[in-house]
Amino acid sequence: MRQKGKGQTLDFNLSKKGTSRRDLLKICENAVKYSVRTSHPYFRNQLYGGVDPYALAGTWLSEALNTNQYTFEVAPFFMTTERAILKKIREIIGWPDGRGDGIFAPGGSTGNMYGIVAARYNKFPESKVEGMFGLPRLTLFISQDAHYSSIKAAHWLGFGTKSVIAVPTDELGRMIPEELEKCKCGAVPFCVVATSGTTVLGAFDPLEAIAKICRANDIWLHVDACWGGSALLSKKHRHLMKGVENADSLIWNPHKMLGAPLQCSPFVIRHEGLLHKCNSASATYLFQQDKFYDVSYDTGDKSFQCGRKVDGFKLWTMWKARGDNGLEALVSNTFQCAEYVHELIKNRPGFKMVIPEVQCTNVCFWYIPECLRNLEETEEWWTKMEKVAPEIKRRMTVEGSLLIGYQPLKHKNLRNFFRLVLTCQPPLTTENMDFVVSEIDRLGRD
Ligand code: ABU
């Protein structure tokens, strides 16, 4: 496999003979040269970007120490830091004395699966042994704007994607509690996955109202806070997740807004003991109960994985370095930049907002080239408009000045629009926001 780079051919083949140090160095240089600079302030393409330097140092250290996060005997320091950071997260959620349990998951999709499995186990503990045999048909509720991982989980967990009901959302993309109430029909409802910070619009589902419905109907409430969970760190913004303390479980991705290196996905659960009962397989070569130390530090059996990377330490390092106040300042700055750019775009000719207010730190808008301005928004107009974002994206990718994503939102009948994603690293400024907007204007010229 040979790929042509600018002015040189890159050799990706592997051969019997090794490679000299000089050539290896060249390969390293090329890896850097041909990789996307995701830490550049204008990489705003995905729900991650930038890296926290303290967390990166933590990652380098744990990678170099190369251990496995399943038992205290091979990872005493990291098992202790994981325990500490999970407790801190539970405290911030508002669970009394930070009680509960948790585990770092390999990403948000798996974190949602942890919540759904726990919900099923909680209602039907026999499912661990019997699987779906003998169980009634189950129903899982998500919102229309929820992340697709719950649908994948329904397949992987064997109750099937037809058992997932997508509850309608309002104009901002938030689950409508009255619609959830109406949906609770037919099969046995066992879990609602509410979202704090939806992938595209950044909507926060109303957790308090949803929790009330869950409580009244004995339904587990799992919160997918992968994207928006960082709002909990900011006194000014944590109201977006009002009612979160009623959740039974929650997944958060500090590798998204907060800039922890990928991946960093703490899953937490309010019910002590359930995670272990639900997931344990009691491998006797790892989790002997007659060890000489406190085996509650051997948390690996709560996970569905065997080998597990040290993902908690990077977040612990960042938190230790910055403290609650430092993290709050970063999150608040990011929200402020989102509010600033929203106002800037709202009042600028050629830009049209998709939703009227900022919810999380994604800002969604259309760019209207001059030839399409001040015209009636007919079907023909929209057919032309939906080609604009892909073309501007092509131009920005080729120039390399900026990278932001676009997408349609079919269930809301929204044609291709831009989603500008703001994250905490590197800390953004209003000047950065001014540049993003004027650059889109420049790239979008007819
Ligand atoms: N896990 C959802 C992230 C996808 C995105 O960056 O848009």
TrEMBL record:
Keywords: Decarboxylase, Lyase, Pyridoxal phosphate. GO terms for molecular function: carboxy-lyase activity; pyridoxal phosphate binding. Pfam families: Pyridoxal_deC. One of its GO terms (cellular component) is cytoplasm. The modification N6-(pyridoxal phosphate)lysine is found at residue 256. Its cofactor is pyridoxal 5'-phosphate. One of its GO terms (biological process) is carboxylic acid metabolic process. PANTHER family: CYSTEINE SULFINIC ACID DECARBOXYLASE, GLUTAMATE DECARBOXYLASE-RELATED. Belongs to the group II decarboxylase family. This is Uncharacterized protein. It comes from Notodromas monacha. The lineage of its organism: Eukaryota, Metazoa, Ecdysozoa, Arthropoda, Crustacea.
